[in-house]
């Protein structure tokens, strides 16, 4: 289950099958990251649709994901 942005009103929960998620992630990994993806900074909720690639793509390519609380977020982004 992921949630849409709510651009048309309230965010909506959307069920995503494991197969659909893996198909998308494999496509994105090949299409967006020809080289190894070392890591990612997850700046949105993992339940929000835009957070899904930031969470799973680095892990699928052998990289890491950094999870930060709100107090650490802005300083970390300023260094990126």
UniProtKB/TrEMBL annotation:
It comes from the Bacteria. SUPFAM superfamilies: Acetyl-CoA synthetase-like. Pfam families: AMP-binding. Residues 1-73 form the AMP-dependent synthetase/ligase domain. InterPro entries: AMP-binding_CS, AMP-dep_synth/lig_dom, ANL_N_sf. This is AMP-dependent synthetase/ligase domain-containing protein. It comes from Pseudoalteromonas rubra. The lineage of its organism: Bacteria, Pseudomonadati, Pseudomonadota, Gammaproteobacteria, Alteromonadales.
